[in-house]
Amino acid sequence: MKKNAYVGTFLIILVVAFVVLSPQISLGAKKMLVGATSASSSHYGYFVAVAQVINKNVPDMEASVVETGATADNLRRFSRRQIDIGMITTNTQSEAYYARALYQKNPVKTKILWVYVVAPQNVVVRKDAHIAKLSDLNGKRFNAGIKGSASEQTTHAVFKSLKITPEFVPGSTGDIVTAVKDNRVIGYVKSGAGLGLDASSRDIATLTPINLISLDANQAAAIDKEFPDLVVIDVPADIAAKGIGAYKTWGFAVGCAAGLDMDEETAYKIVKAICEDKTQQAAAFADVKGANFMDMTLKYSSSPLHPGAIKYFKERGAKIPDRLIEK
Fold first, then answer.
1. Is 7 contained in some domain?
2. pLDDT higher than threshold 90 for residue 19
3. CATH of the domain at 232
4. Rounded distance, CA 210 to CA 193, Å?
5. Which of 74, 150, 197, 205 sits between 20 and 30 A of 253, alpha carbons compared?
6. Can you tell me the distance from the alpha carbon of 233 to that of 278, in angstroms, rounded to the nearest whole number?
7. Count of domains in the chain?
8. Residues 6 or more apart from 24 whose CB is under 8 A from it?
9. pLDDT, tens digit (0-9, with 9 covering 90-100), for 131-165
10. What distance in Å separates the CA atoms of residue 215 and residue 192, rounded to the nearest whole number?
């Protein structure tokens, strides 16, 4: 009897060892962390949908969304290998890749997977603050964007160039939304959800009337000249929200990048799943409905694409611009 017990134990050990050592037997899906942004942002909901698309369409992959401080925070997390893919803005990601601006001494090498929307940087202010132009912000308590985000970094750079000098008040989106409602801060800069207002801006506008401040022609020309990674966006009247007049602001594209550890085949499968999904992402983020992610990626990216993305786009007949291929 004792002998049979020994034999049984040996067989169990043998089977466990085979399962652990055999490369053909899966011990579970590979974990993937997706760096998003603040949970109060519309873009967070988009990345929840991204994770769902990956989990549904990429075999042996289990993606989970991480709330972060958006692009700049995601780049830090990439450098520490704390996330696998994450939201980026094309301007800040390019600066980090090419060691420009704030990243001269600490470049962060990530590669673009896809671009999903263009994001105007909306200067949102309380209507009762009587702010008619950017220079009216001088000396006023104002938030430049989520602390550590691409919006914050870009706003500081743009305002410095245009000689706009508010009293900057840092904080998270939730903190600043509350501060604007309480009139402790007169406004903030927030990425739009496509050409519409972000969820946090809509939240403010529910009970607090707001205005969006426009660049003038000279300011737009100065941004075009000084910031090659930014675009000047004209938003028609009533597009951002009903009752908001036409305005002009700076912006950039928003996409998803991967760290350098991601292999070509995994990136290919993810990009294929995302680009071929027609429902789930649009249900979470209406501005991507009908969007051609491949065309947007090729148009707005300003640093090299991941080889997996290039492989998929070539399959679809795309010609990859030289600027998007790593030399």
1. no
2. no
3. 3.40.190.10
4. 17
5. 205
6. 26
7. 2
8. none
9. 999 999 999 999 999 887 888 999 999 999 999 99
10. 16
